[in-house]
Write a structure and sequence with these properties.
172 residues; alpha+beta; Alpha-Beta Plaits; 5-stranded antiparallel β-sheet; 5 helices; globular
Length: 172
């Protein structure tokens, strides 16, 4: 395939590749978090979101899904920020490692700050591509947990092993 150098095509291919990359980990939830206030500073919004996510980590530890709050088995995330038309920050995130923690409970926890949607992640629905589009947005802010790398590496290794197994089967 010849690579074209027009900027729109490059951005479109970048978003698609990023969305495919984001499909590698085993996500459990797709979430959106909206603030009810007209203005929330980036610092305040981060503080609120991390308090919410740390509550999720504590729940996972309490249910013995992870031996520590911040270890490799702890819940992990990929989060992007966008500004709504009214100028307020809004988050989209993919979250994994939560097992069967009640997602609606965490939807309710966010209502202290505004409105949230906490939905079961469905791989075929395209949330990974939707979140991935923020790679090429001017004011997009991308954040991810320290342990996401482990889940991406593990997923890449599994894909490589599956590809090698398929090649081995074809050679037999």
């Amino acid at each position: 395939m010849a690579w074209h150098t027009n900027p729109e095509g490059l951005m479109r291919r970048s978003r698609r590749a990023f969305g495919e990359w984001l499909s590698l980990p085993q996500w459990d939830w797709y979430t959106t978090h909206t603030f009810k206030a007209e203005y929330v500073s980036p610092k305040e919004s981060d503080k609120a979101w991390y308090a919410w996510f740390n509550g999720l980590r504590v729940s996972a530890k309490a249910l013995s899904y992870t031996p520590s709050l911040y270890g490799e088995q702890a819940p992990f995330y990929f989060r992007v920020v966008e500004y709504q038309d009214r100028g307020t920050l809004h988050f989209h995130s993919l979250i994994g490692g939560v097992g069967d923690i009640r997602r609606l409970l965490f939807k309710d926890f966010w209502e202290l700050h505004g409105f949230a949607r906490v939905m079961a992640y469905e791989p075929g629905k395209g949330a990974n591509f939707y979140v991935g589009k923020y790679l090429t947005k001017d004011d997009g802010d991308i954040r991810f947990s320290h342990n996401l790398t482990k889940h991406l590496t593990k997923a890449c290794r599994c894909d490589t092993l599956e590809d090698n197994n398929e090649e081995t089967k074809e050679l037999r």
